[in-house]
Amino acid sequence: MRHHERRAADGPEVLVIGGGFAGLSALQALARTRAAVTIVDRNVYSTFQPLLYQVATAGLTAADVAYPLWTATGRRGASYRKGELAAVDLDRRTVTLAGGEQLSYDYLIIATGVSAAFFGVPGAAEHALSLYTRRDAVALRNTLMDELEQRNEGMVGPELDITVVGGGATGVELSGTLAELRNVALPAVYPNIDRSMFRVRLIEMAPELLGPYRDSLRRYTRQQLVDRGVEVLLNTTIKEVRAGSVLLADGTEHRSDVTVWAAGVTAPADEWRSDLPRGRGGRIEVGADLRVVGQDRVFAAGDVCVNEDEPIAQLAQPALQEGRHAGEQVGRLIAGQPTRPFAYHDKGTMATIGRRSAVVELRGGIRLRGTLAWLAWLGLHLIYLLGNRNRVVTLVNLIWRYLTWSRGGGVILGDDVPGTG
Fold it and tell me: How far is residue 181's CA from residue 237's CA, in Å, rounded to a whole number?
């Protein structure tokens, strides 16, 4: 077993577990301290999750939504270590990675993220595809393209039913883009497929799509999806996911060649969490300052944590703010100062439905929809996307997709991703 050597010339050692939004935001805050920071992640890259649906529908490559962690850490004077967390020893202040390596810490920030929540629905984990990681997106894209190719070549029957479960931003964005793929690009890319046989269905158990948004934007979103040919089922509960179908609570069974689960996330039951307090959804329970309940030197940020007194949605913006706050509080402790409570600043929410169609709800009651909202969505995502190369390529790919779909352009194939995540 190899131990991480303490760098005596540096300041206190801070371990950040997870290289997502929260982890990198914490890293940025810690760059202003004298801490010796190491970030640990099972992947060598950070994934920009809001654009995974574009990868899944062949509009972007997997590389477009990934940024090397060694670059992110190197620019901020930190270290990167590839590994997956296996155990946390709170008494000895060490973590053990899956390969047996031990890393010591003075302060620990846990930002490991979560996984798809199937809510105990039978067959969902076995027969549905998720859309939370880069590998999920590539797997979905490959499955979708394989299904289309088989029908184009006449190898199977002409019908293709895709079911998207969950009417949040991910479900809406994926459904809208799948419908546009069918409506616009299909005749050029797969000319032998009868578009009328390609059905996209969106199922949501709540009475409306995009629950946090205003009624007018929810109604607009639903109408835009319906206009694009998406079958929207609200107030609908899935009883079981089967190979080739979904069974609803009312006994109705719908054919489903591809079922995509976008109905929520939860904290996986990893063994290393056993000594940490759990809140709703199995997430790590934190106090007002984001310290893990009962711990003085351990923080948690992003999707993996929850403050039961003030729960916050599991979205990118809260993760960014929580990660930054956790890093700042570690800096305050290093400087001998008391921590401060976390206060979330809601900057608004947005979701895209398709070409020139999106909904935006900003702080102060400002609401946008249509082309202006779509441009705002595009601009904000490019700002938060890491790396100038990714920004340029993503902008070019998305513009090319929307300009050339009817001629078969903007469909990117053969982009397999080795490894995990």
Answer: 27
Helix (H) or strand (E) holding 177: helix 169-180
Q: Per the residue annotation, which of 84, 126, 153, 173 is the catalytic one?
A: 173
Let me know if the fold of 13-42+83-114+267-334 is the same as that of 124-264+347-407.
Answer: yes
Annotation marks residue 173 as catalytic: yes
| Gyration radius of the chain's alpha carbons | 22
Q: Which amino acid, 315?
A: L
At the topology level, CATH places domain 124-264+347-407 in: FAD/NAD(P)-binding domain (3.50.50)
CA distance 409 to 10: 52
Q: What are phi and psi of 196, to 5 degrees?
A: -65, -15
Q: Which residues pair with 292 in a beta bridge?
A: 286
Q: How far apart are alpha carbons 94 and 110 in whole angstroms?
A: 13
Give me the residue spans of the domains in the chain. 13-42+83-114+267-334, 124-264+347-407
| CATH of the domain spanning 13-42+83-114+267-334 | 3.50.50.60
Tokens of 276: 């940490």
Quick: pLDDT tens for 58-112: 888 899 999 999 998 887 889 999 999 999 999 999 999 998 999 999 999 999 9
Quick: pLDDT tens for 225-252. 999 999 999 999 999 999 999 999 999 9
- Phi first, then psi: what are they for 238, rounded to 5°? -90, 125
90 exposure class (CB count in 10 Å sphere: 0-12, 13-18, 19+): middle
Q: Return d(Cα 201, Cα 160) in angstroms, integer.
A: 11
